[in-house]
Amino acid sequence: MFALTNSEDADVCRVYHYLIxxxxxxxxxxYELLQxxxxxxxxxxxxxxxxPYDARYVIGSAAVP
Length: 65
Hints:
This protein is an all-alpha fold. It has three helices and no strands. The model has no long low-confidence stretch (mean pLDDT 81).
């Protein structure tokens, strides 16, 4: 067993949250391609909730017809 320092723990958390964010955005894109707009907006909204200041995710969610 080993213990992580606080800075390493924070880095692990940042990477984990980024991967979760990208997964939700990818699911939104997949549902958009399948023309399931409600599901796409659901996953896009999760990304915008986590990063409202990131234009990529805001524009992606606004582009769903």
